[in-house]
Amino acid sequence: MGLFFSTLGNATSMLADPNMLLAITVGSLIGCIAGALPGITTTLAVGVALPFTFTIQPEAAVAFLVAITVGVNYGNSIPAVLVGVPGTPAAVLTAIDGYKLHQKGNSGLALGAQYIAALTGQFISTFFFVAAVVPLSQLLYIFLAPELWALMLMGFVAIISLTGKNVFKGLVAAGLGLVVTFVGRDPVALTGRFTFDIPELRSGLATVPVVIGVLAISELIRSCRQVYGWHEASAGYSGRFPNRKQIRRMLKPIGIGTFWGTVTGAIPGGGGTSSSFIAYQQAKMVSKSPEEFGNGSVEGIAANEAAQNASQSGEMVPTFGFGIPASGSMVLLLAALTVHGLVPGPLLIRETPEMLYAATSALFGGTLVLVVVGWPLARMMLKVVLLDRSVVLIMALLLSMVGVYALRNSIFDIGVMLVFGLVGYFMLRYGYSTAAFALTVTLGSDFESYLRHGLLLADGSFTEFITRPVTATLVVISILLLLHGVLSTVRQSRRMAKSRMEREIEKTRAKTEVESPTA
Amino acid sequence: MDQRKDLALAVAIAFSGMAVVVLALQLPLGRVRDPVGPRTLPALIGGLIVLGAVVVALRILRRWRSVENTVEAEGTEDTEGFPASTLRAMSVWAALFVYVLLLRPLGFLILTPPLLAVLLWIMAVRRPVPLVAISALTVVALYLLFVTLLHVRLPMGPLQPYLPF
């Protein structure tokens, strides 16, 4: 309990540091603007911003990146309400109810509900984040190399099994990511591996260009497949804020959304979209006016917004507690930590608690910044949506390139980023999990190190290595997760085959009817 | 999603996995020995990639009887209602790659405006005034941000001797 309050206290006191406050304020505003641009997801926004964080203090860097995620989760619903286009997939349900209210001339009510629910959900879930992550830091004494290896294995398997539609493609993606980490010096024998006598490969491929390439550049290149405007101009705007009675109606769905957001967000692959759908359904079930859901329901907006913002705090629980990121943007956050010389995992909170304080202060600070500027920003964001999509995509590409160059003044790094951007493009198009690839790239070196050093500790006996209680438990969970993923993939492909067959039958029937109309 | 391309990708990945296995088995063992060694994990992961890609390919072949070549997408889909062009996406990537190859000899200031103009043209921004204005202003803004403010030493090519930073 003492650690819980000391974390909150330290996080709050960090807000008094001008550098931190600046990083959080700028991060929240950038996130909000990025979120308001349809198609700019949290991962993409963090990916483009990541190279800019390496010249600043690690605490400010973490706070900046976390504040961006807070801003994106708030900003993504503004275009959903005003032009019916969600900024990210998590805001799809807000686009339905919010845009209906906007069309009825109640934009203020929709934006007000979004403002209250999103920021309340974010604020409350921050306490849940601290409450959940602090006990995890106490487990570190039982984590030696074998346990850390098993923990990483579980993280890999979780992201493979719980994200994407095909677990086999996820496995392949994770394997390819691990291969990237084999390039360079062997962690024990210190011999070169897969360097092909290229001097730049002797010390391995830098993690950040690879991760930004596969997560951000790939998505930008994919977006370049299409040319279109994000919107038609909005129908109008009425800025009436929700009244007290309407705010009271929102409280229950906000509670539901915050709960589901935090819980689902903490599961790798859960994220904002799943949690918002669960919370929306729950809120509809307990609502006195369920018929309003889908037709401009304030309660629906409240549940959805609270859930997707709370999921942000949820995602950070495994990221900080175990070093297992629950989403692409959290993989990038881990990459930022590793570049600053920090080791993600159970030791992170123990050895560098200031990172936890920085993240917590960004969650609080980002929320407070948006409480102050969020409402006027909502109206201004309407103009952001009017920006030319093509120009924004090209600018983001160029910024990422210059940003990655700035890390080590290396043109080779830009080339690496582009090559992995192309790899990521094909992975995205054909369903190979880019998140699994990026995660194994980020943690792969440690994964091999822990296995080999752990086996040395166990006198080379794999049985001794694997039968340690925590290691064995984690490996069993990993196997169960993998089985769950395989079964889900098989079930899904059966469903797809069935629907394909039904379509075929339907087509044949229609053809028969056309050929013999009298029959 | 075109299942022919899906299959081709799976086969290409399987071959890549095989290449990893073959190369892994030729890795030097080094003087410092441990129970696993430098070859084991790369060879195992290469094998896993081959196995995964073969399973993916077999699953595609099993559903091959389907009349259409296009099946339900497993990856990220395009936004509905707008034509998508792989050629456009690949052109953008190719332009960026050529830019990287020429960046050192020609420098950021000379090379970036034409790159931006080409990219915007590919992305259907065809009016000359916005094209030129966006290209020029972006380069100035990036120069001020990175070189003047953040003191990043961007490659300037032949212009290097004439610049203050």
Helix/strand-derived category of chain B reads mainly alpha
Instruction: Return the domain count of chain A.
Output: 1
Order of helices and strands of chain B: HHHHH
Structural class of chain A: mainly alpha
| Biggest chain pair interface | A-B, 69 and 77 residues
- List low-confidence stretches of chain B: none
Number of strands of chain B: 0
Question: How is the topology of this model organized?
Answer:
The complex is a heterodimer of chains A (519) and B (165).
Chain A: H1 2-14, H2 18-36, H3 42-49, H4 58-75, H5 77-83, H6 92-103, H7 107-137, H8 145-162, H9 167-182, E1 184-185, E2 192-193, H10 207-223, H11 244-265, H12 271-286, H13 298-321, H14 328-339, H15 346-351, H16 353-385, H17 389-408, H18 411-429, H19 434-457, H20 462-466, H21 469-515
Antiparallel strand pairs in A: 1-2
Helix pairs in contact in A: 1-7, 1-16, 2-4, 2-16, 3-4, 3-10, 3-14, 4-13, 4-14, 4-16, 5-6, 5-7, 5-16, 6-7, 6-13, 7-11, 7-13, 7-16, 8-9, 8-19, 8-21, 9-19, 10-14, 10-17, 10-18, 10-19, 11-12, 11-13, 12-13, 14-19, 17-18
Chain B: H1 3-25, H2 37-62, H3 86-106, H4 108-122, H5 128-149
